[in-house]
Amino acid sequence: MNEETKDLPLVLIVDDDAMTRMLVVEALEPEGFRVEEAASGIEGIAAFQRRRPDAILLDVSMPGMDGFECCRRIRGLPDGERIPIVVLTGNDDDESITCAFEAGATDFVSKPMRWKLLGYRMRYLLRASTVLEDLARSKASLAFAQELAHVGSWEYRVGSTEGSWSPELFRILGLDPETDPSNFNCLIQRVPEEERPQLNHAFMNLHAAGLKFGLEHRIFRPDGSERFVLQRAEAFCEQDRTVVLRGTLQDITERKMHEAQIEYLANHDALTDLPNRNLLSDRIAQSIAQAHRAVQRLVVMLLDLDRFKFINDNFGHPVGDGLLQAVAARLKGAVREGDTLARLGGDEFVIVMPALTSTENVELAARKVLDVFSLPFVVEGHELHVTTSIGVSVYPEGGTRSEMLLKTADAALYSAKDSGRNCYQIYTCAMGVQVEEQAELINALHQAIVQHELELYYQPKVDLGSGRVSGLEALLRWRRPGIGLIPPDSFIPLAEETGLIIPIGEWVLRTACAQAKAWHDAGHPDLIMAVNVSARQFRQQNVPQLVLSALAESGLAARYLELELTESVLMRDRETAVKALRQLKEIGVVLALDDFGTGYSSLSYLKEFSFDVVKIDRSFICDVTTDDGASLARSIIAMAESLHMTTVAEGVETEGQLNFLNTNRCDTMQGYYFSRPLPANEMSALLGAGTRLPADSCRRAPMRHTLALAGNDEVKLLPETNT
Ligand SMILES: Nc1nc2c(ncn2[C@@H]2O[C@H](COP(=O)(O)O[C@H]3[C@@H](O)[C@H](n4cnc5c(=O)[nH]c(N)nc54)O[C@@H]3COP(=O)(O)O)[C@@H](O)[C@H]2O)c(=O)[nH]1
After folding, report:
1. Which atom of ligand 1 is nearest to the CA of 652?
2. Of 651, 682, 683, whose CA–CA distance to 666 is shortest?
3. Nearest C-alpha to atom 33 of ligand 1 is from which residue?
4. Where are the domains of the chain?
5. 238 lines ligand 1 (CB under 6 A)
6. Each residue of 554-577: pLDDT tens digit?
7. What is the Cα–Cα distance from 177 to 179, expressed in whole angstroms?
8. I need a surface site. Which of 220, 526, 568, 673 has the fewest CB within 10 A?
């Protein structure tokens, strides 16, 4: 084929008459066409398959296969569907023209023809065919895009009942484009009755006033399945008159399902599947509105499992989670239909009970909830005996908004915990005051750290051999503006509960170490600084690391720092405590067991953890003038001596107590008898003045002791028979 002509349109002429074929060639080639010839129908089909022409000129009357049959066959072949076929008919042969169109012809030309016009005719035909093909392609890609996006489209011309619907619109509605009509009535039939008025109204406004709309509604397919759709529509005007309404219908069922799932997750607790705090607030608000209308009371119970942390710490979190699920299931079985059971998080549950009339009924309901815990829970083979404390708040006395009812129930819960757990308390105004005071205190304690309102006082420890000050105990004070000096007992438990003990404990340790180093440098080089570390602080903070950092920062040698710990440090999570104590021993600090005699008084603790110092609790020293008190104190001193530990007697206030300690070889005394705790500047003065115990107040002759030990290494603090 000639390179120059290969892109020209190719026309196939099928005619048994060689003359006609020649005339066609003569007419078309000068007009920019290539022409392929075929002398019969069979040849024409073969040429079509071989050359894939752009158009066909087909004679009607040919021997063998006529032009109609040839046309039909070509239409049935691949690519034959849309090729322009022009049938050559005899003049005024109306029947042939009809037959030609029925056989699939695109156009016809009557013979004899004006050959000059054939080129124009063919060009027009090819242009129309290209446009049709482009249109078909766009329709196909639009249908594909609509299918992908689940968007169907429709169009109605004003005045006509039938519209034009895209295939995807039929699919979304579950209708058949072959049999179902594409009109508004057919669409509205699929919409649930209760949603029809809104859609009708929107369509009326669109039609009458051109108001476009976007509306979400449901449809039901003929098979009964439900879908959510978004209907959008607009009106198109000509000369201020609406002529066409066009719209789309998007299937948004999946999006709706995801939204519903997200909403469910946002409102439910993942572990127990119960409503969470979010949904609970709504439910309480609804119940309040109902109770208000019906002039009824409403009960909100806040439950907190007793010692849940113990179960989590000792059996592990999977068991803790299993227990929470089991509790949720049991509570679900215990509440009435119409009540709401929710989980607030952690081990806190809430039950909302509408329409409880009398206080007796409220108490009855609370006891019923306590009973839910009477039998043990079995989780992963563990039999767990769990109780709960319940705070009850009643609308309207306990509050008229949901946050208030929860807050007052919390105050009542606090009171139930305070009364020994496994019980309920109904909120009273007095509890409210207590809660508010506490909230205020927490706030102020936060401020205290930032505003430098914390101070350390120091109390001397006196060596009973020499009468000299051998060490100091750092004791925390809070100078609260407008109130005065607050003792630690009033705020340390709260600091522990709120976690504020971490920054406070750190400040105490760093300040005490720095002060000890300052006093060393000022000429008191042997002073040992004792710092209290509470059990909770010990658990919540990495104390060994903090100690290392405070020592490095201050330059104080480890042997001049003493940590006073109580036995409760060892009660929970023993393994971690043991590890931390070993680390502290390695660092080289002095370990003192504080308040000895008030706890388990276990000799095995003293041996196992190699404490260096035992501090005899003030309550024993107070009693040393009685026989029993004296005997107990003597036993502790003897026991400590046998374990090579030094003893410090706390709270020494009288000469009699001091004499007793000297007589019984106690090593060190601490108490008001020598000095009260003093601020740093006053303590500097005391140290500078070389204040000490007079020689006749110090230890004299040694004394023999008897140590009474019970089995299992327990110290049996029995009265000693005097020798
Ligand atoms: N975790 C921390 N606990 C601390 C810290 N500072 C103090 N505390 C603990 O608070 C409790 C009360 O302490 P405080 O009110 O300072 O009382 C101490 C002494 O003032 C008091 N004491 C001393 N001598 C006497 C006396 O002769 N009579 C008498 N009635 N009281 C006296 O004893 C308290 C010291 O006790 P102890 O620690 O057991 O040696 C107290 O438990 C402190 O431990 C802190 O920074 N962190």
Report:
1. 27
2. 651
3. 651
4. 10-141, 150-256, 270-427, 455-472+499-697
5. no
6. 999 999 999 999 887 776 667 788
7. 6
8. 526
462 C-alpha to ligand 1 centroid (Å): 16
Residue-level pLDDT at 676: 97
pLDDT score, position 45: 97
Single pTM value for the model: 0.52
Distance 477 CA to ligand 1 centre (A): 10
pLDDT above 80 for 385: yes
Please determine, for residue 702, whether its predicted confidence score (pLDDT) is greater than 60: no
Q: Is the CB of 672 under 6 A from ligand 1?
A: yes
CA distances from 212 to 172, 182, 196, 231, 526 (A): 22, 21, 17, 11, 90
Instruction: Please spell the DSSP secondary structure of 457-479, one letter per residue.
Output: EEEEEEETTT-SEEEEEEEEEEE
User: What pLDDT shows up at residue 602?
Assistant: 64
* Long-range Cβ contacts of 286-294 (<8 Å, 24+ apart): 287/340, 287/352, 287/354, 287/395, 288/395, 288/400, 288/401, 288/402, 288/405, 290/354, 291/354, 291/355, 291/395, 291/396, 294/355
- What would the two tokens of residue 292 be? 């208000």
Which residue puts its alpha carbon closest to atom 13 of ligand 1?
A: 488
Which protein residue's CA is at the shortest distance from atom 22 of ligand 1? 651
**Predicted confidence (pLDDT) per residue in 292-318, tens digit:** 998 889 999 999 999 898 888 888 889
Ligand 1 closest atom vs CA 672: 27
* Separation CA 540–CA 536 (nearest Å): 6
Centre of ligand 1 to C-alpha 475, Å, is 6
Class of domain 150-256 (CATH, top level): alpha beta
**The domain over range 455-472+499-697 is classified in CATH as 3.20.20.450:** yes
Q: Which atom of ligand 1 is nearest to the CA of 670?
A: 24
Binning pLDDT at 50, 70 and 90, where does residue 721 land? very low
For 609, half-sphere exposure in the C-beta direction (CA atoms, 13 angstrom radius) is 27
CB 492 near ligand 1, within 6 Å: yes
Q: Is the CB of 488 under 6 A from ligand 1?
A: yes
Beta strand segments in 18-131, E:
34-38, 55-59, 85-90, 107-111
pLDDT digits (tens, 9 = 90+) for 120-139: 989 999 999 888 888 888 88
Pocket test for ligand 1, best of 462, 473, 475 (most atoms within 8 A of CB): 475
Higher pLDDT, 200 or 619: 200
Compute CA distances 365 → 40, 53, 297, 368, 665, whole Å: 101, 91, 14, 5, 61
Query: For ligand 1, is residue 534 a contact (CB within 6 Å)?
Result: yes
* DSSP 8-state assignment for residue 721: P
At the fourth CATH level, which superfamily is domain 270-427?
Reverse transcriptase/Diguanylate cyclase domain (3.30.70.270)
Dihedral sign of CA atoms 591, 596, 599, 600 in order: positive
C-beta of 175 in contact with ligand 1 (< 6 A):
no
Q: Which residue's CA is minimally distant from atom 40 of ligand 1?
A: 650
pLDDT tens digits for 410-422?
999 989 988 888 9
Candidates 3.40.50.2300, 3.90.76.10, 2.60.120.260, 1.20.1530.20; correct CATH number of 10-141?
3.40.50.2300
